[in-house]
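Model it.
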Amino acid sequence: MKTKALKKISSKKVTVFKVRNRRSYAAICMGNLCEGSSPKQAIARLYHPLRRMGYELAN
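Modeled.
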């Protein structure tokens, strides 16, 4: 079974912001929204939805 190579996407396309009235942060990229307790965790949680779309974050 062949596996497709994932396309690299720049981390500049990720928007991270503090969620108002909460203690969490959110990261948005290509229509995917993920939340985390820190900006780093929010970005890390984008791994799975982007992978389903055929992309991966480049450092």
